[in-house]
Amino acid sequence: MKILVFYQYYTTPKGSWSTRYYHFGKRWVEAGHEVTIVTSCYDKSDLTAEGWVSEQHIDGVKLKVINAQISNRLSFWRRVGGFIHYALFASWYAAFEKADVVLVSSGPITVGLPALISRYLGRRRLMFETRDLWPEGAIELGHLNNALMRGFAFWLTRRCYRAAHTVVPLSPDMGDHQRAHYKVKNTLVIPNGANTASFAAKRDSWQLPDWARGKHLLLYTGNLGPTNGSHLLKQVAEELARRQRDDILLVLIGKGQDSEMLMETAERLSTIKVLGLKPKEEIISWLQHATVALVPLADKPILKTSSPNKLFEALSAGTPAVQTTTGWLKTLLEDNRCGFTVSPTDPNQLIEVLETLAGDPEKRGEYAENAKQVAAREFDIYRLADRYLGGFEELMERVP
């Protein structure tokens, strides 16, 4: 089977972003399929490109790296320009690259252009993956305020859902929304996940820095921005300082819109450290030494549909997770006793969870073991890759 993927954020474990499609592509090649991924130069990836497009090969996967610069640190219009740049160049491959199945991963919804070209001009079987809900998420978070652009985004989203033979939401709540609001019929839920074997393997050669030893670590990894609860993180550091809890340290690994605010907080308080971006291999070691992993999201209803990669990485490392949404993740953590849900606006709730686990090693150990088990059972990245293969095969049979 020839599988053609459009995904703007491809990275390997050497980068500082989700390795979802690195592992998917590797698995599909190992299963005997021919895989081409059309991607771009995301600033948290380890990929670079020369000229307009660079062809590269990684673990048997052919990459077409479009030299479109994508970064959350760019202004809104520069980000839009990068998305359009990618969509236009990707459309060439959508029209002319041979494939039995085309998989397009959104957002942003601008990838709908190569999706529609693949479906109607290339006349190929189309799977349309939604990593978040566009444009509802962008509107609710205040990123898409222009009425004309909103209208176009809704139109393009509807066209993509209608064109797709299968829609792949990353959470059951997301799938419910698509069926209720867009009348989507064929869905296949494939959440984010992690290479559970890699996250569970001990790395004896790696040691905590001196300033972190002997402390209970609250670890956050990912984008440092308002959508990801950056103000809650700041409040947690301030409350820890007020309580004089020098035995607890908030460690942030990442960059984003609020990096400067959080670094200024770290300069005046000893309860927080901001480390910047780190490769995936080092993040695994930090997770294994953390008492709790934090997965805060802003207090917005749309975010209850999220499928945050960092949560499944934490569970895979055997680190209990604390998150702030009221949707499927809350149910997941409660049913499997592997984490907790707290208010997105109350730092005291989060600190109380940490104090409970720090003061009860037996309970923390129980939650850690439960975390590993649920990760291996439901969120192992290679199990998810195989689920995708099953979806491809079903699509090949359903659509001649």
UniProtKB/TrEMBL annotation:
Residues 213-373 form the Glycosyl transferase family domain. Residues 21-193 form the Glycosyltransferase subfamily 4-like N-terminal domain. CDD domains: GT4_WbuB-like. InterPro entries: Glyco_trans_1, Glyco_trans_4-like_N. GO terms for molecular function: glycosyltransferase activity. Gene3D superfamilies: Glycogen Phosphorylase B (3.40.50.2000). Transmembrane segments: none annotated. This is Glycosyltransferase family 4 protein.
